[in-house]
Design goal:
By secondary structure, the chain is mostly helical. It has 13 helices and 2 strands; from the N terminus they run βααβααααααααααα. It has helices at 15-44, 52-76, 90-117, 122-125, 129-139, 147-170, 175-198, 206-227, 230-236, 243-269, 272-293, 300-327, 331-345, and strands at residues 2-3, 81-82. The longest helix is centred in the first third of the chain and has 30 residues, at 15-44.
Length: 348
């Protein structure tokens, strides 16, 4: 999805104007991404409603609705809104189903990890996706990874274990949250592999893939809500009819949909590599904001664990970006991969 470009060439724009555009887009990406994480944490941390599967299900439903809204707007305003045509195809839905199963695991365990570890430890708790990417690339895709990339993964792994140790020392460690985070990281890596396999089914369009994924997930979540006993929790929830509650739920789904758009904007005005660097810096700011918001005190080793994860992730991004340039990976491939990764890391 994109709003149509101005007829004026970007090369003719003054430096100040272009720099201002980049700054606005980066700030917008940071605002939506960080707000979404805090909003999801607010919804999942409710003492009155224990229904993480339902919350995830509802956000998928909102994403499907927004896809149709953008589809209709693109028909009404073809010169202003650009969005792929949507027409349900059962064959496409069926072929994407294996990816959807992994997708459900990814977003569900992402949200469960956030529910149990909170925003401050979320970056560390969900940090192993890069490590799993390397492991699965070797065993599933038979692709080797450079020594420097493996070294970066070692730094991330060290930061993860140090973070777990410091949370334990502080008495705030949730092994349940850590396990959910590890499973979520594995699902993120599997999701990337399955995404590459099914991309041709949707003609390489990330928005069509998002539509079918969320549509399939919306259907598959319904029996899961029943199995996990969340229907009873919903019926006993005393704010189920409050507009504020549903407003926050819709806002969470809106942010989940918008992250894909602002990610595309950031890549358009910068580059896939710069976007990943921005994402790493955003994670750092997100952690600091979470600690300040909770008014908690963290040890130097706790902060060291976070810095190890962030530095290791940044270094891995730089190394892979350098390797892509050496083999001349097409820019559109890097862009699609970066958008998908950003949506995965944002947990819907």
């Amino acid at each position: 999805m994109a709003f149509s470009d101005s007829t004026r060439s970007e090369k003719d724009e003054p430096f100040i104007l272009r720099a201002t555009k980049i700054a606005v887009v980066v700030v917008l990406y940071w605002f939506i991404s960080i707000s979404m994480v805090f909003l999801n944490n607010y919804l999942l941390d409710s003492k009155e409603l224990d229904a993480p599967v339902f919350i995830t299900f509802f956000q998928c439903v909102v994403s499907v609705g927004l896809c149709w809204l953008m589809h209709f707007l693109s028909k009404l305003c073809p010169g202003f809104v650009d969005f792929p045509s949507l027409k349900f195809d059962f064959r496409v839905s069926r072929e994407i189903l294996p990816l959807t199963v992994v997708f459900i695991g990814m977003i569900t365990f992402n949200n469960l990890c956030l529910k149990y570890v909170g925003v401050a430890f979320y970056t560390v708790g969900r940090s192993l996706s890069t490590v799993f990417n390397v492991v699965l690339s070797y065993f599933v895709l038979k692709q080797t990874t450079s020594f420097y990339a493996v070294l970066c993964c070692g730094v991330i792994l060290g930061g993860f274990w140090l973070g777990v140790d410091q949370e334990s020392v502080a008495g705030s460690l949730s092994w349940t949250g850590v396990i959910f985070g590890v499973i979520a990281s594995l699902c993120v890596s599997l999701n990337a592999i399955f995404t590459k396999k099914v991309m041709p089914v949707v003609d390489g369009n990330i928005w069509k893939l998002s539509y079918y994924n969320n549509l399939n997930a919306s259907v598959l979540f319904i029996p899961l809500i029943v199995v996990f006993g969340e229907v009873k929790s919903l019926l006993e929830f005393n704010r189920l009819t409050h507009l504020h509650f549903w407003g926050m739920m819709i806002l969470g789904g809106l942010f989940g949909f918008a992250i894909g758009y602002v990610t595309g904007l950031q890549i358009k005005f910068t580059s896939p590599l710069t976007h990943n660097v921005s994402g790493t810096a955003k994670s750092c700011a997100q952690t600091v904001l979470a600690v300040v918001h909770s008014a908690s005190t963290k040890s130097k080793l706790w902060w060291t664990s976070n810095m190890m994860v962030l530095v290791g992730s940044f270094a891995y991004t730089w190394v892979k970006g350098f390797e892509m340039k050496k083999v001349q990976v097409p820019p559109e491939t890097q862009t699609t991969t970066s958008i998908q990764k950003s949506k995965e890391d944002s947990a819907v």
